[in-house]
Amino acid sequence: MANIIRIHARDNVAVALSPVQAGETITVEGVTVTALEDIPQGHKIALQDIACGEDVIKYGYPIGHATADAKAGSHMHTHNVKTNLEGELEYTYCPDVLTFPASETPAEFNGFLRKDGRAAIRNEIWIIPTVGCVNGVVKTLAEQNRDLVSGSVEGIYAFTHPFGCSQTGADHAQTRKLLGALVNHPNAAAVLVVGLGCENLTHEQFLEELGDFDRDRVKFLTCQEVEDEFAAGRELLKECAAYASQFRRQPLPASKLVIGMKCGGSDGLSGITANPTVGAFSDKLCAQGGTTILTEVPEMFGAEGFLLNRCVSDEVFGKAVHMLNGFKHYFISHHEVVYDNPSPGNKKGGITTLEDKSCGCVQKSGSAPIMDVLDYAEQVKVPGLNMLYGPGNDLVSATALTAAGCHMVLFTTGRGTPFGAPAPTVKISTNTALYEKKSGWMDFNAGTVAEGEPIPDAAERLFRLVLEVAGGKQTCTEKHGYREISIFKDGVVL
């Protein structure tokens, strides 16, 4: 008999955990139907007759409506289901905040303690260019000075980008804010900031952005002001290495961890296996006093019912509504619809509408109270579950999570992707086939949930892996040297 799941008692569709053949009879929670056509893994099958215009219910929420009459046993996908989403909405705050007791068994990891009291899970030297014109210089500096990586210093990394000049207004400010946040990241034991000398993002502006900072930790190189930028850069990197070498790993409480949660290349199993596993992990870490951050605002559209009433106060609720409607306005102001999100790969994997994708995406939030809502490139201040303004784009949102202060990013995927954020990026497969096929990309298999492993057990496995990575175990992206940033922009390029 086929392996299928009805996620919520109100659902009028079920999801195939393995392929269902036409003519095959399936039973789930007392409902028996015969498949009228082949149902690929991750795709939906109607559990009852669904009339044209009637809502298709999954996760207990509408994920769209039927565009034609569908018999029980029909394949419900893009050919006969359409989104219900439109523009901005009004929301009413009806608090439903769970009491979240602290864990009775505090966990630890072996990390680095910074002078400001923050924890770090890596002890690296980061090279941050203030303008894209010096990208080649910073890459060469990182490559030519790897001999400085010794003792407790774990690497030298340059993060290139195309901005820092020819930008105005909000984009210019956003670039400055993002780069400043990366400079302040705890995983960067020391930082070399490299500028050209004539860019819009001036040295004085960047100093103002950084505010009060440790001048022993952060060094500056302006290429136009020196005869040999590589010789001058090496001397500064030597100083960075000397500063970074004073830190050693030591036992630290898990309450100091800040973990970002992200999905990409999602499929029909994402909201059933990997994302709920990450959600259960998030609850475990929050119970430890730690912090998790959820972003990808467009992939909250249609799933607001999972989130908004968990805000701990009217103030946080107001910030969440402003974030959601603000992002919808961003779409509409660019003459784009708010629901044109699922990619071709998403659809092939079984995701039909943005609501379908969103309801699966927000499973990563677990059930913890939402403690705060962060603006783009704003750094986390309140422990517990936070939401962060950012798009669904993998590189942009993973960079934003890093800038918010995430020590690592948990990245669930059903299709697979090799990229890595500046922070260690743990790739979590939604299905076992992907985990086995792309063993060089994947760090954790949540496909076992579809094969019968209880979500709490998978979450416990993931929690242990997170503590290991926090203690120095390299992720697949780190082993390959995959680390990139991408900066969110909206306006013109001069």
What does this structure look like?
This protein has 494 residues and is of the alpha/beta class. It has three domains: 4-82, Archaeosine Trna-guanine Transglycosylase, Chain: A, domain 4 (Roll), CATH 2.30.130; 124-246, 3-Layer(aba) Sandwich (Rossmann fold), CATH 3.40.50; 253-480. It is 27% helix and 20% strand. It has twelve helices and 23 strands. The strands form six sheets. The protein has a seven-stranded parallel beta sheet, with helices on both faces. A hairpin with a 2-residue loop joins strand 6 and strand 7 (61-66). Helix 2 (169-183) crosses helix 3 and helix 5 (274-287) crosses helix 11 (455-470). The longest helix is centred in the middle third of the chain and has 20 residues, at 314-333. It is globular and about 75 Å long.
